[in-house]
Design goal:
Blueprint (H helix, E strand, L loop, with lengths): L6 H22 L5 H4 L12 H13 L5 E7 L12 H5 L2 E7 L5 E8 L6 H16 L4 E5 L6 H8 L7
Parallel strand pairs: 3-4
Antiparallel strand pairs: 1-2, 2-3
Helix pairs in contact: 3-6
């Protein structure tokens, strides 16, 4: 008795070998994007840029007791609109710094503005933010980027908005 190899068995073996080779090659393609393979990777980054961190370190000292400082809050975290058409205006925007009272009600928004805020697109976004916050009766201060910030100067800026409730 001999082993009979039918054409169907030969075809199956050829297809299996081709599939295995293609799979090995596909996995080892050097330039293959991880996104294409479904293996997207992420890395942690600082919540604040170096400039924002410098400002934060002084601002946190200027905020009086009984008030809280939050960096990088989404605009949607502190305002709402009764119309669904208002959601796109707030859902993709963030605020640099928000000071709240002890009940976590916002009392002041501070935006740290660098030279990029002079571009047309940034100016429009800033105007939209200003209008939304004005409508919600939340004051906003825009502070220019500097090499350093005196705590006393920042106290003078924030204290008028931080009255105990």
């Amino acid at each position: 008795m001999g082993i009979f190899i039918t054409p169907l068995v030969i075809l199956f073996c050829i297809v299996a070998v081709i599939f295995a080779v293609l799979l090995i090659v596909w996995i080892q393609i050097p330039g293959k994007s991880k996104k294409q393979t479904g293996m997207v990777t992420y890395r942690a980054v600082s919540v604040l840029s170096p400039v924002e961190n410098l400002f934060y370190q002084s601002l946190i000292q200027a905020v009086p007791k009984g008030f809280y400082l939050f960096p990088k809050l989404g605009l949607w975290a502190i305002v709402r609109n009764n119309e669904s058409s208002g959601w796109p205006k707030i859902s993709q925007k963030h605020l640099d710094f928000v000071i709240t009272n002890k009940d976590f009600q916002p009392v002041l928004v501070i935006e740290l503005d660098d030279k990029s805020h002079k571009s047309y697109g940034s100016t429009k976004r800033d105007e939209t933010k200003n209008q939304i916050l004005e409508s919600a009766k939340i004051p906003i201060l825009r502070v220019g980027v500097k090499k350093g910030y005196a705590v006393k100067d920042l106290e003078d800026l924030v204290l008028p908005f931080c009255t105990p409730t």
